[in-house]
Amino acid sequence: EKGGYEHFMLKEIYEQPRSILDSMRGRLVAESNHMMMSGVREYENKFANADRIIIVACGTSWHAGLVAEYLIEDLARIPVEVEYASEFRYRNPIITEKDIVVAISQSGETADTLAALELAKSKGATIFGICNVVGSSIARATDAGAYTHAGPEIGVASTKAFTAQVTVLTLIAMILGTKRGTLETTKLHQLMAELESIPAKVEKALKLDNQIVEISEIFKDATNFLYLGRGYNFPVALEGALKLKEISYIHAEGYPAAEMKHGPIALIDEQMPVVVIATKDSSYDKIVSNVQEVKARKGKVIAIVTEGDTTIPSMADYVIEIPETSEHLMPLLSVIPLQLLSYHIAVMRGCNVDQPRNLAKSVTVE
Ligand code: F6R
């Protein structure tokens, strides 16, 4: 059932070229410049005219929501708020009939996410769901939605569900940008072609496995990790840190790289591994400075860079090269080495990666 893999998590990491493709199949045909999502079409006007989009989710799904905030605000120019479902539901939030609330959940059974959307529904908002499990409670409670087609995710640590969520959210941002006229046709076509090439690039990123095993060997006994990223890679930093702590029990924190000097920089010494996601994008020059700041304090830098980059590799201790793509799509590639890193470190530490202590696959109690 694990298809020859030692753990479900590894099998699911390796399924991503396929699960990403399945999540866009029939929804994106780049050759004919065609995009289609039935759930979105039904509410297209409402979506396009919404005062704002509120995304509610927990854990990894919340990280996918953060990526969507960058995508939707940039491509469709609709204000987006991303909320922890547990906080949103209890703070008497302001919700109107002109809001669209998007609930993201792999299992479709997360108690806080379900309660948050029920609250929003009672205030008259339109509820859109992005779930992986067909017919789940959240999927049934929404007005409309789009399934991720990641297939069953068994490993407790979410991997392929995350990239499937980001794929679906990217398509939604592109559809809304087109409808609202905020996304130029040339840029749209570029993004469509890029998105179609993502599964092959994920396949390539998976070939980094051996190199990541070597890095994991070096850092498996660390007690703390810092993950830094900017822009589209900021949510990926959060996700990398979450993956590491949940399955290897190593303390890890994800931060927007610029926030480092507002506190976490105090932690950096020669013992501290710092994973910096530093791909070539609009914040590249800024992240170069952040890497310099870490090196000046003798931190050990593990950098995720774009193929062919020479600047960051000249400063970092360990370099992992991933294929180039548009910054809008980079989380789909930059998260892959982080999933593998946490997996290998956890295995080397003898942890039960598929069923980490104290965690459940779906959190049906608050
Ligand atoms: C992380 C993880 C959890 C879930 C969270 C939300 O790897 O598995 O953080 O992402 O419990 O679950 P869903 O998406 O099922 O609502």
What is the gist of this entry?
The chain has 366 residues and is α/β, with parallel strands linked by helices. It has 14 helices and twelve strands.
Account of the 3D structure:
The radius of gyration is 20 Å and the shape is globular. It has 366 residues and is of the alpha/beta class. The strands form three sheets. A five-stranded parallel beta sheet has the order 4-3-5-6-7, with helices on both faces. The chain has a five-stranded parallel beta sheet with strand order 9-8-10-11-12, with helices on both faces. 45% of the residues lie in helices and 17% in strands. The protein contains 14 helices and twelve strands. A hairpin with a 4-residue loop joins β1 (28-29) and β2 (34-35). α2 packs antiparallel against α10. The longest helix is centred in the middle third of the chain and has 22 residues, at 185-206. The chain has helices spanning 8-14, 16-24, 38-42, 44-48, 59-76, 85-88, 111-122, 137-141, 160-180, 185-206, 209-219, 234-248, 284-296, 331-348; strands at 28-29, 34-35, 52-57, 80-84, 99-105, 126-131, 144-147, 224-229, 251-256, 273-277, 300-306, 318-322. It binds fructose -6-phosphate. Fructose -6-phosphate binds at residues 58-61, 105-107, 110, 113, 156-158, 242, 246, 362-363.
